[in-house]
Amino acid sequence: MPKLYSLLSNLSPNLIRIHIERYMITEELANLINVQKNLKEIGFHKHPSLRHPPLSLTNNIIGTSLINQSSSIETLIIKGIYFQSKNLSYFENLKELNIRICGGMRYTREELLPLALVSLNHLQTFFWYSTHYIYLDLFPNFFRNNGKNLRFITIKGFMISDPENAGILINSIANHCINLRSFSGPILRENILELTKMIENCKELQSLTLHPSRKKCYGPQKKECFDELMNVLINQQKNIRLSELTIVYSWKFSFLQFERLMKKFEEMQKKNFKFSFDPNILKDQNFKYIANKFIDLGVLKEIIDFEFGQ
Q1: Which secondary-structure segment (H or E) carries 180?
Q2: Known SUPFAM superfamilies for this protein (predicted)?
Q3: How far is residue 250's CA from residue 211's CA, in Å, rounded to a whole number?
Q4: Domain of 289, in residue numbers
Q5: 79 in a structural domain
Q6: What predicted TM-score, i.e. pTM, was given to this entire model?
């Protein structure tokens, strides 16, 4: 790889995107980053057969190169490599932040506390995925500081340390991310007021993906009832822009609520609405009849199977 990095440094000083899958601290990689004149996107991805050093911005040549390029970088992707959240502040013009915590790498809550103090005024896309714990209480302050331009928010964790804080998370997004177009994350069945506030405040909201907020978010799960949360949509007095709803794997809902929601969408003159849920629900002929009826009417586009790991 060092030879390839050296060759690219000489031949390609105008790269817009660089993605590194065999990250190691080398002069050749540092130079490849440093010579770029218009670098907009950089990604560091864990290689399954390698142990990677932390991605530090201090006391190493890679960090120095990243700091030199930080004002031009608009997309930062870090997958499976340790990175101190306090260093995000260097990327003042960042528009997309994509963090995937996977493999043997994980963070304690204390290591992520600086996330609440980071200021990224241009941020539009926030993606946070962990195969270990996520800590919901860390996100509200982050969204308070960085929410004004956020359009897309995804928060997925295989385990949630504090599932009871889902309402605080959604309330923070409703208050500070009014330009939101897409949200994917956890919710409690009792977070009716918080979801109502999100839909009313975030008038550009087009896509919702909701999964139950619980300690363990994978494997066989007890079904939870989505009926009360579905009422938030059914009881809307104004047309909303929502065009896609995904309720992940362990929700259930009643036939009557499903029918009421479809009639509400018809009243709103929704066309080709994308609705994703457990397809086993359609084994009930009543559900299947209503789904087919509203597909034929053009209200529903299709019913899509959705798995949490997607």
Answers
A1: none
A2: RNI-like
A3: 8
A4: 226-239+247-310
A5: no
A6: 0.93
